[in-house]
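USER:
I wish I could look at a protein chain and see how it folds. I am handing you a single protein, as its sequence and its fold in token form. As I understand it, each token names a local backbone shape. I hope you can help me see how the letters and the tokens relate. The protein I mean follows directly.
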Amino acid sequence: MRLRAGDFFGERALIKNETRAATVKVVGGTMECLTLDQTAFSLLLGPLGDIMKRRVEKYDNPSECEEPGNHFKDIKRGDLETIGTLGKGSFGHVTRA
């Protein structure tokens, strides 16, 4: 599977409390990879936890998996609830949903 900018991996291990099974190989250029521990992942995920758990269940049946980059294609902004502000500046206003 090839991932693009903004895609993620390793969530199954965090959600199911399993050993990480993902391996990353950069095939061209450079890559910046950010990491989260179990606590940070749970705090950031918040109310989206149920959506992610359903997605992880699909991993056991590859025919149900979506293409990379389409992880949240069915989620509309109106479906999200703003929890708080993460930051404000000249770049804009960033909120956590």
